[in-house]
């Protein structure tokens, strides 16, 4: 069993965007703050800090998860992927292109989170319907676009990937 | 919006967890998925001295069938429930309900046990386990006990559990689950907490008449509400009739005391409860297979 007092730090081992880290963290530090402040990965945005807006969504062991609803100590032994890691992946580039083409962002605050959810979604769903895409997006708030562009962009990437198979 | 300080424990086994609860149960709290609990900590609506993180107790994450009982470990993610073939085959009602729980991103992390012990009167899982006749299996260092969910929920966010106890699994009987089922809820936006939710289970005989009927409503009282058999009697042995449903809705909701809040007034909640009761009954009726039932 691992344990740590409130005023002490715990050493955690984790892989973030394929890079290994051994870091000491305070138990009450939120994962979102840890990524931004301790690792300098400021691509993950912090919006509401209670799991409603979806801006801080990242991938942990392949699943899209809210990083404001986890403590940094909880990723001990896990693999994390953030928006910074996505830009090296083919799917990331495809999404970037499609988001640009369909005007799927304006201010961009929500975009990092949406892309991380989209990645899990596109790995899981081969032929997503528009309804399924919208259902996945219901976990994200975007105040600029009205979602239409985001839906079209994700649908386009899904269709393109299917043709390639 | 940052949680206050706490001591952090991460047990690897159930025994360690129960031991921690015995020592720190009063000042501590279990952290499972944290999708309701961490917001509460972030907003400082609650402060804890010690947090017991059970996410590494992998033995508590399972879905299995033993002797016609579906057993769901407390740490099972809501997303695993949604994607489980066993649930899909045996309890389509539970499967249908899953997509109403928060969003995919919170279901990835949120757990079955966490939702049940949080005991939000408008949450989906407590309501569905209630209508399915589910039982909560509760363990402490001293004993293991089980309790019917009907006796488990006491009031808002309060259950029958003691500080040194852990909900370890939910047991749901899968034999004789009525074939007609329906779950409906109304929320401000998809994925938000339900204002009101309703769920119905129904059987019909060969001539199409209703032989079995269960109904439960969430969000209209301090706990999820299971309708009395007595209140549902008017429909037994009959085809579905709008007038009788109205009567049933009236009598079922007679004791309900919904709260009015920012999201919906008490009157509006009562209104949609009636609408939803009608909706789930009709849907369950259409889905119920007609089959021979012994008298």
TrEMBL record, chain A:
One of its GO terms (molecular function) is 2 iron, 2 sulfur cluster binding. Pathway: Alkaloid degradation; nicotine degradation. InterPro entries: 2Fe-2S-bd, 2Fe-2S-bd_dom_sf, 2Fe-2S_ferredoxin-like_sf, 2Fe-2S_ferredoxin-type, 2Fe2S_fd_BS, Beta-grasp_dom_sf, Diverse_Oxidoreductases. SUPFAM superfamilies: 2Fe-2S ferredoxin-like (SSF54292), CO dehydrogenase ISP C-domain like (SSF47741). This is 2-furoyl-CoA dehydrogenase 2Fe-2S iron sulfur subunit. It comes from Salinicoccus halodurans. Keywords: 2Fe-2S, Iron, Iron-sulfur, Metal-binding, Oxidoreductase. The lineage of its organism: Bacteria, Bacillati, Bacillota, Bacilli, Bacillales. Pfam families: Fer2, Fer2_2. Residues 10-86 form the 2Fe-2S ferredoxin-type domain. The keyword Iron-sulfur applies.
UniProtKB/TrEMBL annotation, chain B:
InterPro entries: CO_DH_flav_C (IPR005107), CO_DH_flav_C_dom_sf (IPR036683), Diverse_Substr_Oxidored (IPR051312), FAD-bd_PCMH (IPR016166), FAD-bd_PCMH-like_sf (IPR036318), FAD-bd_PCMH_sub1 (IPR016167), FAD-bd_PCMH_sub2 (IPR016169), Mopterin_DH_FAD-bd (IPR002346). One of its GO terms (molecular function) is FAD binding. Residues 1-177 form the FAD-binding PCMH-type domain. Keywords: FAD, Flavoprotein, Oxidoreductase. It comes from the Bacteria. This is Carbon-monoxide dehydrogenase medium subunit/2-furoyl-CoA dehydrogenase FAD binding subunit.
